[in-house]
Amino acid sequence: MGRTYFVEETIGQYLSDLSTKLKPYVTGLLIGQCSPQRDYVVRAVRTPPKEEEKEDNISPSKLASIDEEWITTHASQVSRMLPGGLLVLGVFIIATPELSKDSQNALRKLIFSVEKSLTKRRLWKPAEEEVSDRAALQICSATKKVVCRTYDVQDPKSSAKPADWKYQSALSASWLALSCTVNVNIHIPLLATSPNHDLEKNTKNGLNRWSKQIEDSVFLINGQVKDDDTELLEGQKKLRGNPQSSTQFFDVKVLTQLSRSSSHRSTATVQVCSGSINLKGAVKCRAYVHNNKPRVKEAVQALKRDIINTLSDRCEILFEDLIINEGPHKKNFQREYHVLPQRLFVPVAGSSVMLSDYKFGDEAAGEIQERFVEMLDQSVQAEDIHIAEEMNT
């Protein structure tokens, strides 16, 4: 038996519109959530056109000209805009009948390169029982025939397995949301022996150690410690009224001082340092889970990953910004303060799930709106941009 993908109904219309507009082929990403029983697809997003394609309004005619690097870069950018629980679940291609027979090979190649690029950036390891199948969706632009297959990204020799693609209305209208605020105070020593004081590398190493602390922390859901295998909704009052408009929120406290694994003995080391990095502030984190009897374990895992991702993504964005604005050769070791970008959330029409992004203090709403159109093919009203955090250094 292959996997089943339950897909937000509006995606069908979106893919159909793309197939009439863009010839001879168009690629894009599938965004959603895996669970042990079934997978959910809540968004499909076409690959943004490159500058030269925008100007000449043309798209390449052969599948051999698919730009793998462009698509994987898009996937990395999009993954930063996904809250906990959502991930890039696969890749789609809509192609003319002449190109269909080569489409599957192109999709297979893309799935593995996208996954490789996303895995490289992660500071967490997938759990053993985690779903490692990713979807390859192929649509014929002439007949509109849909073929969905999956590949196991943990196995480079994996061959295609058939999968079901089922549309469902209001699929994510009443998903559950977990939110927490985490106070961050991370001290990262810069070793005197490390070459050129590679800030980015040192920061990543420091965040790596911190992420293990988050993984081992105790999570209180609505003030209670819950067993991993209990249902998240156990003991909750059923929401009355219109399920379309109500998101059930769980308030989570993260106790970083309490560790679940008592086997870790901490050992002190003495190191010669030439400086240090301090990361301080409060970050707002959020995760979404499907409402088909989710377990506490799934929900907590989604929130842990959001906490870890949001900090490492911000540091990455800051370093990119510094390189663009100051050049890579700035070697000034006085005390410097940089403000990490703030987090914001934007609603998705017909869904209880919100997407995320980051803004620097001087960025205008227009720039954020442009980014949502380019990265997620979604237009956003300025009044729908919810800034989640205070400005703090």
Please give a structural write-up.
- By secondary structure, the chain is α/β, with parallel strands linked by helices.
- It has two domains: 4-167, 3-Layer(aba) Sandwich (Cytidine Deaminase, domain 2); 175-231 and 247-258 and 270-330 and 337-387, no CATH class.
- It has seven helices and 15 strands.
- The N and C termini lie far apart (51 Å).
Keywords:
Protein odr-4 homolog, 7 helices, four-stranded mixed β-sheet, eight-stranded mixed β-sheet, membrane, transmembrane, 15 strands, Cytidine Deaminase, domain 2, alpha/beta, 2 domains, 393 residues, 30% helix
In short:
Belongs to the ODR-4 family. The chain is of the alpha/beta class.
Tell me the span between the first and last alpha carbons. 51 Å
Side by side, the strands of the main sheet go 7-6-5-4-2-3-1-8
Sheet having the most strands: 8 strands, mixed
Order of helices and strands: EHEEHHEHEEEEEHEEEHEEHE
The Rg value, from CA coordinates, equals: 22 Å
**Class based on secondary structure composition and strand pairing:** alpha/beta
Question: Counting H and I runs of at least 4 residues, what is the number of helices?
Answer: 7
User: Shape, please?
Assistant: globular
Overall pLDDT level: 87
Weakly predicted, low-confidence segments: 241-245
Strand percentage lies at 25-35%
Write down the domain tally.
Answer: 2
Helix content: 25-40%
Query: Tally of extended strands?
Result: 15
Family: Belongs to the ODR-4 family.
Protein name: Protein odr-4 homolog
Subcellular location: Membrane
Function: May play a role in the trafficking of a subset of G-protein coupled receptors.
